[in-house]
Write a structure and sequence with these properties.
The complex is a heteropentamer of chains A (348), B (342), C (326), D (530) and E (297).
Chain A (H helix, E strand, L loop, with lengths): L4 E13 L6 H4 L4 E13 L2 E7 L5 H8 L7 E6 L2 E2 L5 H10 E4 L13 H13 L4 H14 L6 H4 L8 H13 L5 E5 L7 H18 L2 E6 L2 H7 L2 E6 L2 E7 H6 L4 H9 L3 H5 L33 H5 L5 E4 L2 E3 L23
Parallel strand pairs in A: 3-8, 3-9, 6-7, 7-8
Antiparallel strand pairs in A: 1-2, 1-4, 4-5, 9-10, 10-12, 11-12
Helix pairs in contact in A: 4-5, 4-7, 7-8
Chain B lengths: L2 E12 L6 E12 L3 E5 L6 H9 L6 E10 L8 E2 L5 H7 L4 E4 L13 H12 L5 H14 L16 H12 L6 E5 L7 H18 L2 E5 L3 H7 L2 E6 L2 E7 H7 L3 H7 L40 H5 L5 E2 L10 E2 L18
Parallel strand pairs in B: 3-8, 3-9, 6-7, 7-8
Antiparallel strand pairs in B: 1-2, 1-4, 4-5, 9-10, 10-12, 11-12
Helix pairs in contact in B: 3-4, 4-5, 5-6, 7-8
Chain C lengths: L1 H27 L4 H9 L7 H9 L7 H13 L14 H36 L8 H10 L2 H15 L19 H38 L2 H8 L4 H27 L5 H6 L5 H10 L3 H29 L8
The chains are: A alpha/beta (348), B alpha/beta (342), C mainly alpha (326), D alpha+beta (530), E mainly alpha (297).
Bound molecules: adenosine-5'-triphosphate (2 copies) and magnesium ion (2 copies).
Chain lengths: 348, 342, 326, 530, 297
Amino acid sequence: MTGEVVLAARGVTKHFPVARKGRQVLTRQPRAVHAVDDVSFDLRRGHVTALVGESGSGKSTVARLLAQLYPLTSGDIVLNDVPTKVKRGKSFRAYCKQVQMIFQDPFASLNPVHTIRYHLTRALRVHHGRVKGEELEKGLASLLERVNLTPPERFLDKYPHELSGGQRQRVAIARALGADPTVLLADEPVSMLDVSIRLGVLNLLRDLKERLHLAILYITHDIASARYFADTTMVMYAGQVIEGGDSETVTQEPAHPYTQLLIRSAPDPERAHNGVPTVTTAPGEPPSLISPPPGCRFAPRCPYAAEKCRTATPPRFDLGESHYAACWLYDSKTTDEHPRRDTVEVGA
Amino acid sequence: MTPVLEIRDLSVDYGQGEGAVHAVSSVNLVLNRGEVLGLAGESGSGKSTLAYAMTRLLPPPGIITGGEVLHHGRDKPAPVDVLGLSPKQLRSFRWNDIAIVFQGAMNSLNPVSTVASQLEDIYRAHRPEMSRAQRTKRSAELLRLVGISADRLGSYPHQLSGGMRQRVMIAMALALDPEIIIMDEPTTALDVVMQRQILEQMMRLREELGFSVLFITHDISLLVEFSDRIAIMYAGRIVEQAASEDMYRASSHPYSKGLLGSFPALHGPRRPLTGIPGSPPDMRSVPSGCPFHPRCPSAFDVCEREIPVLEKLSGTNGDSSRSVACWLNTPSLSGHPGVGAT
Amino acid sequence: MRFLLRRALFYLVTAWAAITINFMLPRMLPGDPVQAMIARFQGRLSTDAIASLYVLFGLDTESSMLSQYLTYWGNLFKGDLGLSFTYFPTPVSEVIAQSIPWTLALMGVTTVISFVLGTMIGVYAGWKRGSWIDALLPITTFFSAIPYFWLGLIAISVFAVSWGAFPAAGGYEPGLIPGFDWEFISSALYYSVLPALTVLISSIAGWILGMRNMMVTVSSEDYVTVAHAKGLPEKRVMLGYAARNAVLPSISGFALSLGFIVGGTLLVEMVFSYPGIGYVLFTGVNAKDYPLMQGIFLIITMAVLVANLLADVVYLMLDPRTRKAA
Amino acid sequence: SSGGATKSAASGVLTVGMPNGPQTNNSNPFLATSAGASLGYRFMIYEPLVQTNPIAPSEKGTPWLADKWEWADNYQKLTVTTRSDVKWNDDKPFTAGDVAYTFNLLKDKSALNTNGLPIAGASKVSDTSAEITFSKPQFVNENKILNSFIVPEHIWKDVPDPTTFTNEKPVGTGPYTLKTFTPQTVTLSVRTSYWQDLPKVPEIQYTSYNDNSAQTTALASGAAQWSYVFMPNFETLYVNKDPKNHKIWMPAGLGIHALWLNTAKAPFNNVALRKALNMVIDREVIFQQGHSKLFPKVDNVTGIPSPAGDPFIAAEYKGKTAKVDVEGAKKVLTEAGYKLEGDALKDPSGAPVTFALTDPAGWSDYLTDLDIIKNAVKALGITAEVKTQTVDQWTTDFNSGAFDATMHWTNSGATPFEGYQNIMDAAASKPIGEPAANAQGRFNDPAATAALAAYAAAPDDAARKTNLDLLQKIFVEQVPAIPLVSSPVGAEYSTKSWIGWPTAEDPYAPPQPTQTNALQVVLRLKPATA
Amino acid sequence: MKSALNGKTIAGLSIMGFFVLIAIIGSWIAPYDPSAMSSDIMTPPSGAHWFGTTQTGQDIFSQVLVGARGVLVVGLVAGAIATVLSVLIGVTAGFLGGVADEFLSALSNIFLVVPALPLIIIVTSFLPDAGDFLIAFVISATGWAWGARILRAQTLSLRQRDYVEAARATGERTWRLIVFEVLPNLTAIIASSFVGTVIFAVLSVITLSFIGVASVSNWNWGTILFWAQNAQALAQGAWWWFIPAGLCIALLGTALALINFGIDEYVNPRLRTSAGGSKVKMRVGFTPVLRQEGGRS
Ligand SMILES: Nc1ncnc2c1ncn2[C@@H]1O[C@H](COP(=O)(O)OP(=O)(O)OP(=O)(O)O)[C@@H](O)[C@H]1O
Ligand SMILES: Nc1ncnc2c1ncn2[C@@H]1O[C@H](COP(=O)(O)OP(=O)(O)OP(=O)(O)O)[C@@H](O)[C@H]1O
Ligand SMILES: [Mg+2]
Ligand SMILES: [Mg+2]
């Protein structure tokens, strides 16, 4: 069963309408934040897929779309080979029994007025009917045990503020597990946690993946942790997935200039002490998502940008076993010579 | 290496009496002229408190309960104790000698006044002799220094992106050409590309202007890359201090080791991550003895009872700047008679 | 822009609703101006007068609600608020025009003073939190909890009747002709001291408290700490950084209260026999004087709306964040 | 302030105050809503044909603009001879034409005819003689007719609508002209010439205070020298502030305040209970506590106030005053079959006697009266309840008979007729549930109704006396209402600056500043120092 | 949970509790029937009449005791109704958003703009036999809008909170989200708006009674002042008729305000004044240095 696709995004697109201002009211030109544009990927059982990208690149939006918390603008979300669109009510509950989400901030995702018991009880009851008494207690205990909060009695009647960040995130995970989901969408599950605690939570997730064969979408802005934790990694830039593939390949042999920039920018203790020259990073900022630049969205910052990059959106180019990048540099039709990835180096 | 700032036995409490939180306890730290001193530690370990205490900017109910902060002025004969300054002296000391770039740069700018007015405020307070035109000119220069075009002077903070705001803060810190700049997690809210841009710029400016930096962050790999020396804090105390290379290659304190082992590396072999078990202590009830002992894999009986002192460690390559507060590193431990009144 | 459009729509809807309420309210409720008038005269107006009064007030003819409503709107657009019954046949607009300057002057000035003073004290109290000035808060709260008619009556009894330092009633020396001469103005000022003080004392606490709390909140914002770190003079930090931000929420409250001064002065005017609009409204209510009630209500509502508009504009000016990026 | 008082006295100003709130510039004398009516200054400008005295209504009036007046056709036709030496204050002469015009105006504009006079027509006979005809005998309205003030034809004939005319520059025959108007204060100054001796008061200042308390304060401080305002405990509040000068005189008119009983339904459909109730109410307490000694008590059993009504009281009731007699009341009740069971009084059918006493919320004097009555009937074993209503509800309930007992005033006129008519005229009454113009207590005694009709149309004094005596007898025996106090035509005034006021010893006129007779008072005033 | 009880709140709650007690037992412990007249007319405070007597010999102490109930009943009932209204409207508007929000916000804005006191006076003066509950209802009808506005704003921000979103992602129904996730977090604001409305209602009912619009035969402190003013008690020197009721109103108002302080400080901990007994003066921007001999290690 490991490896089968449970949840897939097919050309998922989300545009948030923007309030029109002033004169635009008259011209009636609809405007929207192109938060996510034509994103496709698969989540497989027992497989962690990382989604990496800088702030505002649309990672959370993808997660929320997959959780059906937002309606899609276009595209499909395919659950177990069935395109699914749910809004609320029964079908929504049936959907989220399969697909559960973990939020970035464990300090904010647990209601401060409710005990851990309440949170977990609700998770059980919503998806398993009115469990009561013994059965409920057993359910609660097993949930907490699954996230290594033992002994369970010590945590059940605490309020969120009485727990540490790592413990809270574990509770949030336990709550998600309450539904017995097949897919976990983890939106930056550790970025708000202390460095020393992060690892514990990530290891827990990995453990769950292995034991429960969950399909996990791991969203992060820390590409190093993607390398450590995820099987496959996708890189997002300005609402689009620009590179994807096996984590090791993506991090060690980045193909897209943006990925390369990202990896060069990540802090690296070795750099200072190995005499690696400090890098000059690409100038500029991510583009406006309201009127994204035509063509490749990274083109305005890209040192290799050619004319074509500014006019045509690059499709995915396969670069090898499951590795792909959306960059014209890899279009064999335009360039005879396949640019060696390691030669693509900014600055120099 | 001449010290520019010397912190001696500094202790800070939040609140008084029974419920007081001892956020910083007897910290000794020296910042040398021209160096970047990194300060790392988990959230709540007292890094910001230490930084604010040096300039007496703690929010109530923070109280400095002991110690000295000696500033060796560039052209002052004797060091002055910042903690003993009168409000007037303190005001003139601030920004002239120590500037701070705060943790939440997003909120460090007054939302209702322009960048220019916030920059010029500094000159109006510290350089009253400057003319209006001079002030404007200087402000424009500062912005250019951090890579922002001068026509942004009239902008309000909300009109700037996060990165720009952080740069404005850095420009502001440079306004009076201070000897020391404290940077309290200046880039946590930014993404890695922007973070690198800003830090590299900062390092270039340091090269040019020669100020010292106290660089606070919990991202130890960042520290290793950018600072000369690193001090690690845990539960309000410095537990280890070393040149950054030493710290990276061979840290001695179990906590430092754990911290370093919590960062996945992007390059090189996929080394296993150890992490640190347990969770940071509640500062209201810090464990007795070495505060780290409940989480320490190699704790033994003394650790539970006595607080280790920060002791010089003959470094691997004879570097004397290295010190650590851990009983493991005390060879004479067997000679210790157990508990002594401290 | 969109913000302003939305606001404009809000103003239109509210104005329409308020005017319609104005129209409906007196008509929905029982009562009869003629009977009220007879009752007011308690036997000094004989029952024979009833018939003549119905004729006089034009209440002897009936028309449908809808046609009345349309006529009402038509007249409104002509600026015609009808004739007051209480002061028959003086037009309502004239009654209002005659009384509203008093209210505006007394309450307007008092409200401004109260706001400015209260805000200033609040700024200081918030800045010096934990000092003796905190003890001031319960005291001012106590004063603000006193109903101000009571405070006013005590003030009259102490300062006007027993001591005789201030006049007990009226807006100016009887016999003076209102005009822009010193004699009149000084007399009006003198007569306004007691009512103004009463209003001031009972309203200032609100401003102090609101401002203090905002100051305390704002004082721990990072930008205030940065201002301190910059070594700015304390006054500059307090005013330019903390107070400047803390005052924003008070501004809209202030504008609102400016709007409500027209409606909220009834008791002051009753107690001090002040010739303002609150008292006239009260008279109108007792006399079932629909046209007068409608007119005053309309004015009050419009005043509140205008004040709201003003608040929006001022807010827009003071808070750059609500302005659109250049 | 007291400063104001000294200033006005020194400068020869008479300061009048009324507690009526801000005024609008309106001197239309016909409108009760005008400042002229509210403050009373209309009578300083407009003069009546004859000055009649409401506190001595049976006296013949003092000729004023009319030298002579004669009734004919059983009070259906009035011939007036006017003075020839009178000038309007715009120097135009006053003629009988103005009189005819005024009465025709009242006839045409029913909105201005507040007395509801059935005027058939008026015409000028000569420059000094006018003839007014009525459609009904007007004996009972005589004083109202003679009291009517006259407006100048040459001004009013050009007024498009006299009912909405604000008359900002009033032209009258009186000795004063309007000098300045402000909403707070109206100043009148004396004319240069007048058909009588010019008054000694050069200027009168009418100030309107917002309420009784402000008015009282002004009187106490001397800022107002003359007013009519209800004040509790006038000794403390007013007289004692300057016992030498501060005077109060509240002579009774013929209007009274009575406890109206609903005689058409239980419990007051039983005359025994009405009588008993009448016997337990202490009028002295009502006078002192309920009305603070300001409203003269009405203790003659006929409900006719003294001394104004003394000439009308039937011989058999002269000097008969109502007294508290609880034992007597109990006897009356027992005789009628009422029983006291335990503490509670049961009516002949065995039902406990209870009733509600209603009046508008906030009418403190009436409510105090009701409280006193409520406490008084406890002695009979009756539980009464005081209930307040809004004025509107109360008025509606009163007119439609939806009450048990309520304090209410009666109409008043030149004779006790209006009062009796108001209480007992079943001809103008309606069944319970419909608004009645008179006899709101639904008192229905055909003898009384007949007597009232006969009185109004009676050809001579003898016939009138017979009918009035009969009405008094019915009133005393049937107790359709319980008279308690009279409406005074009084005033507070100060002798500090001005003397010559009417007093109980010299009751030449009622002292009230808003009465027609106020002009007579002002004409008699002299500076105190002179 | 953090204790919201500080000196001020405790003082406020104690005074409030005292008045509530009086409101409950006042009519039993009153030494006289408050309406009963006696021959002790206008007597100053004495052993027999603690607060003196009125013009008609009524015992003012009894009136004050009995009158507490009217004030508190109207205040609390109006506060409760207005709070329920403001929660219903504000929270619904904030949570649902869209057209419902536009409509409900417009509604509360209109009620905000319409001047309350004149409206209350007009409505009550027309209402036949305006009893306490009716008056409370009218007051609450004009007093809910402010609370609704604040609650709407707060709900709007709570709706965006992760825990609401997380609960939704768990599969909770909308009504459960509102009732169990959002509402509990609004308790402090609801409490504060309740207390605020109670203050408003208390002052309103007293004003109404004072100007004689509300029924003056039901005793409340405003009624006492109405009669006192009618009898011009102050001018007559009968201060005892005037002072107690006024002080009671002021005390009740202060108590409510103090409770609100407590709630404010609970919601915004920064407002808390430093705990008593601190010898060090905290000064913003200048951290005090308090070197202890020997220090700690
Ligand atoms: N509800 C919304 N309405 C309008 N725009 C939105 C909304 N939610 C997100 N956006 C916009 O969509 C873009 C993508 O946002 P998203 O939160 O998915 O980014 P992210 O990659 O998760 O960023 P971060 O790392 O900061 O969490 C941003 O530009 C954001 O402003
Ligand atoms: N105002 C305060 N009142 C009470 N305790 C406080 C206050 N501010 C900080 N503390 C406590 O002091 C300790 C040190 O806080 P500090 O902010 O210095 O930590 P830090 O190392 O900067 O953490 P971070 O990495 O999160 O910025 C913490 O345990 C914190 O709980
Ligand atoms: Mg995100
Ligand atoms: Mg910090």
